Amino acid sequence: MEIPYTVEARNDTGLYNAKVGIWLFLASEVMLFGALFSSYILLRVGADPGTWPHGLLNIPIGTFNTAVLITSSVTVVLSWAALQMRNFAKYRKFQAITIACALGFLGIKTFEYREKFGHYEVWLKNPITVKHGDKEVQTDRLLGHIEFQGTHPSFWSTATLAAKQVESFKFEPDPFHYTMTAREMAHAKKAAAGKPHEVIEIKSADVKRLSAFVPAHSTYFGIYFTLTALHALHVLGGALVIAYLWGPGAKMWKTEPERYINRVEVSGLFWHFVDLVWIFLFPVLYLL
Amino acid sequence: MGHSHSPSHSNAGSADHAQEVARHVKVYITVFIALLVGTVVTVALNYLHFESMTVTVAIALFVATVKAFLVAGYFMHLISEKKAIYAILVSTIFFFAAMMYLTVWSRGQLPWGTRYLSSPTPGAPAGQIGH
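Predict the joint structure of the above. Result:
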């Protein structure tokens, strides 16, 4: 049996069926991401003042990745326009850029995740003196990187110290902490720029808690990884569909071109939605 | 059009159609540039570090919303769509708004244990850094 309304419009909707289908699906996606966004808002406004981690993500890289995703969105729509002009070669060129952007986005995201997994917060039992920019401060909470036997390990936690029987480790503290305001943090970073990193020795016995920037670190990283990983899965899914249509699925162009154009349009609508989600995720997670 | 392997179609080759697509392409490029500018503006304003958190949030969300309208309106063609899709969207907006309202509504009645990090480990005192 032939599938009805793959090309011609239904009388009641005025649309081919797949288009109604993708929009219904996107409606459910709005609710999925909306639920997580509202969780984020609730967690954030419920946090005690000055306790919400901020300024820990790499803004230049996040900005670049935003540009990568925006570029992929415009190449999707340009490729569809090329198909409407019956220019299959041009369509393929534009979608090749889309796929490259998708892979680039995921690659950059992976790099960002790895950076977080090797970045730590340590809570000490007693305050020590460290430099925050040009100021010396007394604090029992440090951000920074662990150096252990010549390596910079990832994923360590309080339990790792016991499991590996680590007596002490080297720590390169960052010249700031997220309990500062954004302005103070920026000032401290600027004051410390270009100066050599302090390295201190921390005894495991003095450590109250150790956590990498993983979901267990805090509510902030919990919601950060949930939202960005769910978004990255959408990028991956969208890229797979676009790549399928670009490669093996392109056979349809010769047999049913109108249906093929519709498929490309529907995959494009999904892709724009993924871009749209990122448009909100980026400022909310990176800048606020 | 000139492609030997391209199937023919009633629309293809019509000068009107070609002109219309060409006009759309111009719009897409303009929107693309606007989105990039929007991104740069958001990031640049962020480096100004406004005293007020409300101003920071308002600016970030305003620019994001404008960008979202550009993507939805032009890339997803929502400025000229069929009624059926607007109907789907209106109901989505209703339920989305209702969900967000539930969030706001529950603000006054936070359950125990959701306040973030008043102490890093249960029973331990809070961090020493003042603010």
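Strands of chain A lie at 120-132, 135-147, 168-173, 200-203, 207-212.
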